Each structure stands twice: as structure tokens, then as C-alpha cells.
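Appendix B. Raw example, untouched.
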Amino acid sequence: MKHISIIVTKGAILGNIEGPRQVFTEVNQYLTNKGLSPLFKIQLIGISSESQLNDGLYTISTSLLKDVKKTDLIIIPAMYGDLQKAIEDNKDFIPWIINQHKRGAEVASLCLGAFLLASTGLLNGRKCATHWLAANQFRKAFPDVTLVEDKIITDENGIYSSGGAYSSLNLILYLVEKYVDREAAVFCSKAFQIDIQRDSQSPFMIFIGQKGHEDEPIKKAQEFIETNYQEKISVDQLATMFALSRRNLERRFKKATSNTVVEYVQRVKIEAAKISLESSRENVNEVMYKVGYNDTKAFRTTFKKITGLSPVQYRNKYNREMVA
């Protein structure tokens, strides 16, 4: 039997605790119905015997962390609020997670739980996913971790992470398939109505340029791009405007924003295009020209690269008038 420890952190998101518990419990029932033995022993683990969530709105009974000597999988739920404070509030979990990993346990973070997982050092030099809204904050806090903000699932040799919010359940399905089989994972996807094919957060992401840095010329360059995205903006133009060499501008821009200048311009243009496709009845070509593209192929290719969808697919997915 595989022992699963869902840690109940201070400030945890209830859905990230109950969701995995329900799915793994359903797998046990699924196996029992097939005449097989249940595979998972699921425990909720806390620092004390009771953990309060949402400022006392919910109280969860938990097994004590100190009493769990050996586990096979640790699940770290998302936390809300000030994430640096959340890490400090839950620092007592960190040595236990590290010790259990040394003893062979796998570790999975859900959504913003990646911040606590990264605090253990186990993600250094590895890839990680988290909620796209927290991408800039995560990069700044953990520069030694490779954030793949578009991904829903990462698997780094038994250290797992997932994208934001309810997409975390896609990681749970991935683990069900890994520990049991594809048939069990498909059953759970149908029982809980989770789209098992999702592998990207891209269609849900809203681009928010990283401005939490102190490089003022780069910040002004970002603001110029965001204000003038309809125009053709070149690296040389920005370098001249802010009295920087092209090489210096590109180096500082990438360091400050985690994007190259060209990537930033593309993302700002595509974000504007997404808003138009969501809210207007303009056709794709009209939107393309409006955001400063003249090449249809280039626009469609860039749009799909950033969102994971073609412009028409995106409009059909999010424009209420088109759906109606």
C-alpha cells in the first residue's frame, strides 16, 4: 500500500486538500469494485491535531507530523495571502519534507504550494510550475529554480508541481496513472469531470509585465511598449531612445523582466489582441492590424505560441457573443 501524506499547512486552500483526498479515495473504491485491494492510505498531516483554515472557517482533524515516520508521497497544497509569511508560518514542515524525500518519498506541490516546495531547496536546478499569476514573484524569490509558467504538470524524477487553481487535479490524475494505470486515471477524469488532456495554462494566462525591479530605464521601456504596442517597435529604436547600447539594453531587459525585448513586445501585442477577441465582433484580420501586425502568418503563429490556441479558437472559447 502506498502512503500519501497531504500536509495541512497554515493558510492552505481547502480545495487542494479535499480534491486530492477525494480522487485517491475514489481510486481505492474503483479498485475494490474490480475485486482488487485498495492501493492508497491517505492521511492529512498537520503540526497539531487540528488545523484551522480560512481564518477559522474550517477546522480539519490531522495526524501529527512528528508521528509520521515514513511516507511515499507528500502533497503540498496551495496557500493564500502573503506567500513569504505563509512560508515562515509553515517552516516546521520543511525539514520533515526534506528528510522524507531523502528516505525515498516523492513530493508534489499544487498551485502556490510550489513556494513551500521551493523553500526546501529540492527544486534547485529543476523545472517547476505554479499559478501563472505568481510567476514573477516566484522567479524573484527562487532564481535557482527554472519556472515553466505555461505548464500544468512537471515531473522532475519524483518531484512534481502543478499549475494554478483547479488544474492541480490534472497532476493528481497524472499520479493516478503513474501509480495505478491509464484506465484508473480515465475513470477518475470522467467521475470528477476533469479534462485529462490539458497540459498547458497558456489559454488562461494574462500577461502582466514584471515591473518589480529597480532598473528605471527598463521600466520606462516597458511602459513605452505597453503604450505604443500598435506601432512597430524595434530593439534599436528603444536602445536609442534610452541611450543604451543594443547589447546592454537586451541584457538588462532580460534580467529585469525575464523576457527578451522581442518577447515582451509580442506578449503585449497578443494580450491586446486577446482582449479584442474576447470583447468585440472584429474579425481576426481587423484585430491583427489593430495590434500592429501586418503578416497574417506571423500573427497566427505568435498567437498560438503564446496562448496555445489559434485566434479563431480563442475567440470561440471566450467571446460570449460568438458562443451565443
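End of appendix B.
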